Amino acid sequence: xxxxxxxxxxxxxxxxxxxxxxxxxxxxxxxxxxxxxxxxxxxxxxxxxxxxxxxxxxxxxxxxxxxxxxxxxxxxxxxxxxxxxxxxxxxxxxxxxxxxxxxxxxxxxxxxxxxxxxxxxxxxxxxxxxxxxxxxxxxxxxxxxxxxxxxxxxxxxxxxxxxxxxxxxxxxxxxxxxxxxxxxxxxxxxxxxxxxxxxxxxxxxxxxxxxxxxxxxxxxxxxxxxxxxxxxxxxxxxxxxxxxxxxxxxxxxxxxxxxxxxxxxxxxxxxxxxxxxxxxxxxxxxxxxxxxxxxxxxxxxxxxxxxxxxxxxxxxxxxxxxxxxxxxxxxxxxxxxxxxxxxxxxxxxxxxxxxxxxxxxxxxxxxxxxxxxxxxxxxxxxxxxxxxxxxxxxxxxxxxxxxxxxxxxxxx
Length: 412
Known about the structure:
By secondary structure, the protein is mainly α. It has helices at residues 11-33, 39-45, 50-53, 56-78, 80-98, 104-118, 122-132, 139-187, 191-197, 205-215, 219-240, 242-250, 254-260, 266-282, 284-302, 311-323, 326-333, 341-366, 371-392, 401-409. The two termini are 12 Å apart.
């Protein structure tokens, strides 16, 4: 059964809403990724080890992922606009309160609470794209949202490290909170359009559990969510510890780490919509293996000696691999939800962020044996995923209108 698409009488209003959602996505990912590059600085400030300080990354990401399961369910039952606005308000308040922390333990606690509170915005923005745009046109708007994610990473990573010497880590969190409040006012004028795009759907707990069983009961669902998980572990594990890698290998300070990471997020920020259009035209099954191969190449490059001035290029290639995989997988997920799109996208973001959190933990565990072992293991897993993806996603290639209808129905 094709998924319903909300009819929008004014395409310009739809585009304005898309840009507002992209702005919200940008600041949430900015806040999430501004932390990893300042791990060495926080370790020095609080006289703690980088391994202990590094726990504040999964302290945010794992609760974020878990909470999306409940936000998707609440959005289906209560309405997407109510849940989205409450979650965005929680993001602003809890990000500001993080600046009051007096220890790494308190920072970790506020990060847990922020992850729980903020996780209703991005997944529901992705759901709205599924309601506002037909399947064969979703690549571009999904590209905007994932480009905003990449942009948040691109600016959050270097700026987080570069501005801390001037405004302090507390000022960094307060600035992120203020930006979130500004984004809230950008989205408020669209609340009626958001409410009209997706009506609440009733149901019992049994319906909820059957919905998850149905999502994972097809080969298409299992392979899509499986790749979301493995790929998110790969990218988060590498990126979380990339600042520490640069600090140890090149003896960089926080400003130097920020400059070295300038390339990360640039491809998604500049080319996210173009990558999405290419996925619509050529098929996600053709681009996914390429994206996985690019990711593998970037991490393999970290195993080799290269001059410092090439570090931004390596970060750029790693980011390009992310931009050519996760947005494409999200496009497939938008066709899996049927009448419960919030549940389908909630499961996607749950898988994504739990993968982010576990990836950083797994890399930290391997790091006890050195960066060579950790990077080599992650590169090998991504290479295996790339080789299998050629066969696993061969059905995600359009071949006329019948293929589009089949993809919409989620039968493959």
